[in-house]
Batch of 2 targets.
Target 1
Amino acid sequence: MIEGSADFVSVPISKRIGRCIDRARAKFLLQLAPGTFWMILFFIIPILIIVNYSFYHYSEGVVQKTYTLENYVRAVTQYVYFKIFAKSLKYGLFVTLLSLVAGYPCAFFLARTKYRRKEILFLALIVPFWTSIVVRTYAWKILLGTNGMLNHFLIQLGLIQTPIQFLYTEKAVIVGLIHVLIPFMILPLYASIEKISPMLEEAAQDLGANRLKTFLRVTLPLSSPGITTGCLLVFILTVGAYITPDLLGGPKEMMISNVIQREYYVSFNWPFGSSLAILLLFIILALLIIYNRIFKLEKIKG
Amino acid sequence: MSIRAIFLKAWIVFVYLFLFAPILAVIIMSFCSSKYSTFPLGELTFKWYRMAAEDQNILSAIKNSLIISVTATAIASVIGMLAAMGFVRNKFRGKEIFNAFFLSPMIIPEIIIGIALLSFATLLKMGGGLPLIIIGHILIGLPFVFTVVSTRLYGFDRALEEAAMDLGANEIKTFWRITLPLIMPGILGGALLAFTVSFDNFLITYLLAGPGITTIPIQIYSMVRFELTPKIHAFSTVIVLISMTLILINERLIRPRAGT
């Protein structure tokens, strides 16, 4: 290295700056390299592999490396699979709307209350968020089972004579999903409601708007970033749900993830399973792109 | 108090009850002396905790979980911290896309990550098992470390580093003596979240484990699929308490007190 050993002072200043930039650049690349490497090797490449698989032909337990569109055609046209996708999207819609309706008052309360123990209420929201999803889901079996707590109380109260079948129904799955996902709704809602100045609401009321009108014309529109983020998160997480339909719904209530798992581990039809996964990925990406557009529009508007 | 306020409060109580009722049910049922998790309880007992602690399957699940989560968290923390430093302190083209790219494992359904990694490993004839699970857990832990450390770095006063360099510290010394201690809360917070995510992960682990390897969530899952017993409730109670403690530590001690 002749250049490196050159006398420091004799190197022209432009070259010294150049070397500095090179060093900064090298440092920058070194910092980003391990993460980027990991993401490409263990995330992007594996996804490309299943994209490739999804075009393979499969018959009688053998994967043939000839390219075909038949997996996608089957996924879209065969009624069973169409129904599963439709059902997952329907659950997504239900869970999102119910979480929004149930969560908005909570977020509003948390953002506006002057209650001294607010921090505890906030923690109480975050703690279940990070608690084992398997435990929180199976716990509903204790509550909703035929001999479970809910049936016991209902019978004790004389409201019903014989236990009601709650478990392994659509309702159980939706309740379980709302339970797991509602914090994903409340937290972004809270963040955006907290930013709204209460003075704006007071101003609207001074100008003669009643409470409902103030809410509909001031609070609700201003909290729309939180609404969009919360809805996007809950919808995406619902559509990809696995454990809740598995434990609370049983085989009747399978969603997309359960069907993909089944294709991979029970039928061993990896090409078809991959095509379902890629369709799911497309749904998610489409939603993210729409979300991004909405946010760019909002930024332009205000 | 107006009627409106009463309704609002009642609704809040209802939602919190909804959030905590299932967890409370597990805790209560873990003290039930009868073998079947039915209501009412009957006598209370601690025996299920003892039995859970003696169950070989549970013990080996705990061991696997710890090996996986500790390794994955350590690696994810280092990689995520470096990436956050490179990301926050440089302007480059496609920065926004890079950010989205790095956070994407958070939002892409686990089933896709799971079968993609499985297909990758099969193609390389790697087979399932611990190394593959750890790879997957690092992937899902990275976004958490990355965001938490990034947030910390945005609030970082670089004049402190310049001062250290002016006083004669070289870059490496500056990093160890100034930068690292200052961003440590971010790294610890991110690591804690990565650990929790790994420790609680079910689906990716389940897809990659192959026969014979269980972690805590998988062990609980395989036990509750067919029958609910107080032993599982006892085990679950302990796991829930551990997760809660970790999160309380993060919220109370590590996260900077901003806003709330």
Target 2
Amino acid sequence: MPQLEVRNLTKRYGRTVAVDDLSFTVEAGRVTGFLGPNGAGKTTTMRALLGLLRPSSGEALVEGSSPVQMSDPLATIGAALEATAFHPGRSGRNHLRTLAAAARIPATRVEEVLEMVELSGAADRRVKGYSLGMRQRLALAAALLGEPRILILDEPANGLDPQGMRWLRDLLRSQAAEGRTVLVSSHVLSEVAQTADELVVIRGGKLVSQTSLEDFTAATGRIRVRAAKLDELGEGIAELGGKVTAEDGALLVEGLGGEQIGELALCRGIALHELSPQQSSLEDRFLEVMDEGEASP
Amino acid sequence: MSLLRSEWIKLWTTRTTWVMIGIGLLIEALFAGLYVGLASLEDIGEIDEVATGTGLLLVLMLVLGVLTITTEFRHGTASSTFLASPKRYPALLAKLAAALLVGALAGLAFFAVNGGLALPLLDGREGHLPGAGHIVSIYAGVVVSMALICGFGFGVGAIVRNQVGAIIAAIAFFFILSPLPELLPGNIGDYFPAQSIGSLQGLHSDTEGGLGQIAGGFVLSAWVAGLALLGTLLICRRDVSD
């Protein structure tokens, strides 16, 4: 059973369709990146999974049932939605205390999560004086408070410094390694590339693709070649039917395999310096997929 | 109970509650001390008029009741509150209970301040003091009215949700609109909040018409229950997107 499931979810606000017949699943033990441009419906979908908004049709399920029915909510799902959702006049520690009290979580756990997000020193200051990064870490502390089986994080990397990003990445990886479910939305693609195992990509409220990260950025069929006599090799490749484009001191070859290029070089006695299949970067693929979506609405 | 504890912590971990009750008590203390100490005994008349205070603390408790719920939407904390209580109504019930409790607590503090100053002062000036039973019933009415008006604020806040709008709506309805039906013939006005809180505080017990304290308390409680129920139903149905 998937830990999180969105089934034919549609959410309309008046005549605007925020989420349009969206379906996907999120499994335990992996980090699932939730990608899409601004306004794609990521936050709406996450809020539906948290029971904060009711779908116009379809459903959002947590461990197979409605999120509203959760019996021990903070031990089931921990969520960090917006880094601004705190009372500015309340201290970070007291914010966590109110949540801990509601879920019968011992006060020692509040100290633990403050320690985890490295906010202990600022815990008694009012949130008003926190930086965006500190608020982001407080939101994460709140999400982790109940040691939840599922984490839902909306743009958690926003406002974090490079160290904070690194820390967040390690945190997400370790949570997944412990068998927890992690759904994390982001528009910082390089972050997702380093963290996620799975990708759910949406656009205009619709699913664009759900695949593993490897499949999403799978081989493009292009091979980068550098060699001693590049021009001569290029001619040979063209004779064999390969398509060649020059790229700063190297060739990009389409339509021929690495073996054929290697053998050709050997026959002609040309020393190869590089022969590498090209992965498309997540960013390239993402933009590509978004363009495809544009072309076929 | 855990949700009530959470709401109780929320109340006391921002300055709002402290400041509102503090200012309210300070003004009430000045009123009770100065008025009873300095005004002529004829002007003071019955202790009943003094024991209900200036009404400022009452207004502040109405506003505090509104704030218990509207701050959650204003600052976006409603999301985390309802994540801990996905069915929402238990958290809202806890909030209503917390509002009633903090109102009662302010009422008790008011009693300590007002009674502590006005009673000895009046006694010292050999003014007219009614029997202990009457005094107790007057102050009990005041304590209950502080609690109920705070709950009333919660109800209006839950319905309106917008902080400024809800504060204006609560004050306008309670203090400006709800006294109007008094002007109508018959006793329909007795069943509106402004009159019922007067009855609850014992202000109408010897005037013609008007409900007794207990009946006034029930009428006001019914208003609080009705508004809180409506507000809870609305919040349970609406999306939480801020």
